[in-house]
Amino acid sequence: MAQEKAVTVRELVDELGLNIFNAGADLTRRITTVDINRPGLALAGYFRHHPAERIQLLGRTELSFLAVMDPREQARRLFALCSYEQTPCIVVSRGQQPPDVLLEEATARGLPVIGTAMVTTRAASVISTFLEARLAPETLIHGVLVDVYGIGILITGSSGIGKSETGLELIKRGHRLVADDAVIIRQVGEDTLVGSAPPLLRYLLEIRGLGVLNAMTLFGAGAVRTHKKVSMVIHLEAWRDDVAYDRLGIDEHTQRILGVDLPAVTIPVRPGRNLAVIVEVAAMNYRLKRMGYHAALEFTEQLRRAIDEHDDL
């Protein structure tokens, strides 16, 4: 079973430049969800269905509510809020100072209380964006990811079929390399996948006979990019005479990656075929389809009308 992805509170603090109010707190607590909770109901005494596993964000509204509360009631509510072991941390926004009772209760349980100068809504947005990037589902795919005419194309196929050579030719033709050999695919939205290279392989191409090449060193910074949305998949396979390959392009095929269906085409490979040009045309054709023009459907419609006119004669 895959281990649940998580971010520690220490990583959150270091990445976003937050400050810690109780230095002795446990900064190794794990954050496992991108959702953030503003515990207004909990401070009012309603803890049923309280999402304790989320970061608890206290803004001006919550702190002003605590300030007018009876001290004994305030202590009881904060005791209950800090008592959940699965709560990763409490964040106080707008540069405000948390109540002493909150710091006492949180410190006694090792619960980090973190401060930020950002307004509450901005803090929630920035923290959520950071967590979405770090906690997004991901997978590693063997292939080449290139940016062709602004379209992120994932080229897959068996080892030695010519993926890296196609990527190299595309770079020479002015397109950009994102990843070669190993592509990390992250789901950053419900139907959005973003691909990047592992840090060790960033900007590198492996060409059999030449070895490992650095695309940025050879072709310049404009020939590479660190990440790109994956829009379609092109699968390369060895040409087989016994296979009837699609010649019209009417049928729409997809490939599912991390639960997202991407348009997919299969290109048979044999000597004499210019794969880089085919990939370029596939990218342009994808853009035309997105704009509402489908060449294959247009052709079949014209053919149908021609047949109907012939039958009427």
TrEMBL record:
Entry keywords, A to Z: ATP-binding, Carbohydrate metabolism, Kinase, Magnesium, Metal-binding, Multifunctional enzyme, Nucleotide-binding, Serine/threonine-protein kinase, Transferase
Enzyme Commission number: 2.7.11.-, 2.7.4.-
UniProt-recorded Gene Ontology molecular function terms: ATP binding; magnesium ion binding; phosphorelay sensor kinase activity; protein serine/threonine kinase activity; protein serine/threonine/tyrosine kinase activity
Domain annotation HPr(Ser) kinase/phosphorylase N-terminal: ranges: 7-131
Annotated family: Belongs to the HPrK/P family.
Other observations noted: Both phosphorylation and phosphorolysis are carried out by the same active site and suggest a common mechanism for both reactions.
The protein's name: HPr kinase/phosphorylase
